[in-house]
Amino acid sequence: MKVFIITGPPYSGKGTQCEFLKNILEYQHISTGDICRAEKENKTEIGLVLTEFEEKGDLVPDEIMKNLFGNILDKNSNSKGIILDGYPRTNVQVDNLIELLEERSLEIEQVINIEVSEKELLKRAKKRAETSNRIDDKDEQTHVKRIKVYQEKTKPAIDYMKTLFKVHDFDGIGSVESITHKIKSSLIN
Questions:
Q1: How far apart are alpha carbons 73 and 67 in whole angstroms?
Q2: Which of 2, 104, 131, 143 is close enough to 81 for a disulfide, judged by CB 3.0 to 4.6 Å?
Q3: Res 137 pLDDT > 90
Q4: Beta strands in 71-159 (DSSP E)
Q5: What is the mean pLDDT of residues 154-167?
Q6: Which among 153, 178, 166, 157 is positioned nearest to 112, based on CA atoms?
């Protein structure tokens, strides 16, 4: 099974790109946000813990995410490949993911990093809040906090990944199709 990571700030279009790429590559799209929302909606034990962190715009603790992702990898072990969307987000999560993959004799093939300016991210967040039915999209302060958490935690994790894996940076401004085309042309098959 091949493992790709798509990373970048919140509202950068990671999920949109994952949806296109999963169809092109025939991989599973593993969205941290979608999985966490399902856990919260089902009011599972982990879902209640996730709610506490995510609705404040905080990152979920690394150990909780490690356990969640170990289960996800096991459930998708027969897949041709997976695209991780929204994980890892911290240096510790990068190390945890490497450990989880090594335990399963897997490795990260490539990391795609989508870059978008803060001004554009806030514009996109506002637009998504108008069309989304997600509670966590309604508060503008949460948008600002998510971007700040990204800058403080995830950006350093991306820089850390650049020392470990092949990371391709892409400008997230432009049509969805043009960005998809650029990403697709860089993928290791």
A1: 10
A2: 2
A3: no
A4: 81-85, 108-115
A5: 95
A6: 166
